[in-house]
Fold this protein.
Amino acid sequence: MRHWIARSLNRKFIVAAAAGLLTVSLIFLLAFVTLYHGQLREERTVRASEVNRLLQAALVNAMLKRDLPGLREIIDGLGQEPSIRQAMILNPTGEVRFASDHRLIGTQLALSSGTDCPVCLPKSALSQETQLTLSDSLGRDVLRAIHPVHNQPRCVQCHGPTELNPINGILVIDHEAETLRARTLHSTGLLMGSGAVVVLLSVAGGWWFINRFVLKPVARLASGANALASGQLNSRIVATSADELGQLGATFNHMADTLAHNLAATQEQKAFLQNLIDAIPDGIRVIGPDYRIVLANQSYSQHLGQTARQIIGTPCYRSSHQRDNPCPPHLITCPLAEIAKTGQPVKTLQSFSRDDGSPVHVEVYGASMPARSNGQDTLYVVESIRDLAKQLQYSHQQKHATLSQLAAGVAHEIRNPLASIRIALDTLFKLRDNAVRDDEQLYEYLHLADRQIDRCIDITERLLRLSLPPGHSPDLVSINSALQDTVSLMTLEAIQRQVTINLALSAHDARTVAADSEIRIVIVNMVQNAFHAMPHGGQLQVSSQVDGQHVTMTFEDNGTGIRPEDLPYIFDPFFSHRADGDRGTGLGLPICRAIVERWGGSIAIATQLDQGSQFTVQLPNADALDAV
């Protein structure tokens, strides 16, 4: 019952108002009844005193005249009154001398010890004006008024001196208390009924007022607030008054407008942030301190073949490694664990697992991101993830771009032989048109065209050897030929970059066992790396030599050199810090080292800042292997 009332302001008001009005009505009723009883008693006392004084006067007059029959008639007449139960006159000792009930005449009304008399009184009560409430032998209430008749000088002849006999007699009147009580109860009932009507009218009027001007506006406010909380941002309150509740409704509408505007702005910012990270080609995921992913972009979803709904809220080790527990730090380099230790960014190579179990080889770069969430400072980890397979594809694209640059050089180099061939052919046509027969001159021009055609074929073969994919079986590669052919293809780029290439080849042909096209790619990357280190031109010394068990290619430039803090990372994938200001892929040197190490060689570097760098590529000597 209490909960049923507590859930409704209307019911609480009705109960509280009814209880309050009822309590107040009862208090006023009790006060009125008490006051009514007091006034009634006082009025009754006054009236009884007046009657008694009249009776006393009549009694004194009858006594002086010794009119005993008249005295009896007065007492009998009083006993017949509806509101008087009986009337008696007692002598000073308490004996009944006159009574409306003649059976009481001669009885002793003064209480004596051992007497069982409910209407008897103690003698002390007979000597003064007294009003008492007694119960008769039938249990009925009796209001007894006691009025002593005092001795007067004119009465001393019969009753003696006043000093010895102060009282001549006692008038006792028993009033009907039941009639008085019935009247009182009737009046009280009328009063209570009137009070109840007043309470009901007050509650009904108060309920109508509260319901009309308070409860209904509050209900509309509650309905609007519930609709707003459920996501109905267009919910508004219809104001029907200009009072405080109407002002509250207007304030609510303004709050709803502000909330809708701010929420729309927040959604737009959230969408902008999501679109921003979705535009990043690398996979991005943000991980909370509980290992759960709070944000991810489309590239990350594509890496693992998952949807954003599957990723957000999922532990990182479940999403990328299909594990039920965090990755063991001694088996997998966990960026969260490493950043928690050092606070520094972490870069590592990992193998992610898709839902179907297929691996995805990636490079992960993780960094900390402090933010405030739910009123607390929280440290998140942002991971940038690159698919190494796609980067390999990018390296092939880089190779194609390199070949495009070389093709421009080839076109420039082929143009001169083709021009010579055209001149020779034009001359032959003129000789034929002029009908001039000179076999020696004709023979000379034909040889010129043949030599230039051989030159074009040689150039195209060099380009083809560079662009061929590596075979499954190694070849015997001439280092001198590879250097001479490849460097010649890059002459035009060297001229454009104002770089002079000096080629110094060993007298004895240096040979190694490897894939010819891969060795040529190493030479291209090394030469281009030197170009990038000389943004304003310079000298590049390219040489080869044979040293016992090894053959060596050296690429020495006089460019900017490499900073000491960058030197440990130049062979790391995707690390790029070019002196010409361009942002490279950072895969050239890692590809060179991978190729050279695959064929049993190594790459060494010596550098000095602002003086230049020297890269030394060392490969096994094929002739030394044959000798063994």
Remarks:
- The first strand starts at residue 84 and ends at 90.
- The chain has a mean pLDDT of 77.
- The CA atoms of residues 397 and 482 lie 22 Å apart.
- The radius of gyration is 63 Å.
